[in-house]
Description:
The chain is α+β, with helices and mostly antiparallel strands and 379 residues long. The protein is 63% helix and 7% strand. It has two domains: 219 residues, Up-down Bundle (Multidrug efflux transporter AcrB transmembrane fold); 73 residues, 2-Layer Sandwich (Alpha-Beta Plaits). It has twelve helices and six strands. The strands form two sheets. A four-stranded antiparallel beta sheet has the order 3-4-2-5. Strands 1-6 form a two-stranded parallel sheet. GO terms for molecular function: protein-transporting ATPase activity.
Amino acid sequence: MSKLGDLGARLYRGEVGYDFVGKRKIWYGISILITITAIVGLAVRGLNMGIEFEGGAVFNTPKTSVSVAKAEEAAEEASGHDALVQKLGNDTLRIQIAGVDTDKSDRIKAELASEFDMKADDINADLVGPSWGEQIANKAWQGLAIFMILVVIYLAIAFEWRMALAALIALIHDITITVGVYALVGFEVTPGTVIGLLTILGYSLYDTVVVFDSLKEQSKDLAKQTRFTYSEVANRSINSTLVRSINTTVVALLPVAGLLFIGGGFLGAGMLNDISLSLFVGLAAGAYSSIFIATPLVADLKEADPQMKALKKRVLAKRRAAAAKGESAEAPESAGDDPQDGAEQADQDAAPAVVGPRSGPRSQPTRNRGRGRPSGKRR
């Protein structure tokens, strides 16, 4: 078995672990700081909306040796507006100029052809009206609203309303960070960006639902025992699915990173940048929020429940009593033990959930083995 596989097995069995829920205030602080930075970037810099949303013209030239800087200068002089120039992988240029009508587009194309020493007919000009982009944006907002409503309803039915609320907060957290990164980096927002944002919604919820499913299974009849609090069970759920979350996230990020850094960086494919950046940031934010935000939030909401408050008091009181008697306060044999074992099994161990490597030999129960002859007739 590989080292990562061995670590995953030990995490699943509860032999090792990390106290994610116990350190939740640190993760909340980091998320709040990142979110505020994203919001400030969005408010100060704003989004660089593409011509699909603002309207304008796109000029595509044939293969040329003209530099991006020279093409940008020529396009701005010809149009009187800011121009966005991208050099594509086949040494062609893509020039975007907002606020251009048909007559002005023809004049700009002629001036660009003269400046680049090529025929005007070789330059392809496309006009885009702002109404088309506005329709896309409206449909995207509608799709986002419907998606969130359906997600909340499904999670509330399949799990409970606290998990649905935590998942919704984590989802908003991921979208805010992704949009904020777009504002800070200055990438152009195109229909490809909208597609990428809508795509990450499912990825953002994937790891969250996996952890929630484990938590739901482990917290059945939790109030009938006095070994673990709800937060401890939530922490074990994160640890037991941690390696799986890391594996799925890395596998998903690798091809997206290829699109972003190789396709967009080296080949100069503009549309790949739009989609891959939103996917890359959204996937990373989704993996982070499922581990550090969503499940700790559920634990906070659940610990406010009177039943879970009473359970926590019983667990802590039992541990204090055990400590006062000088009994061992070591971690239980396995943090993966079923909390449904009941009060009888719970009374045998009052230790907290595992949050680190387990040390020391396992204690084995003593058994009275009789030496009598088995029942049956003698021969």
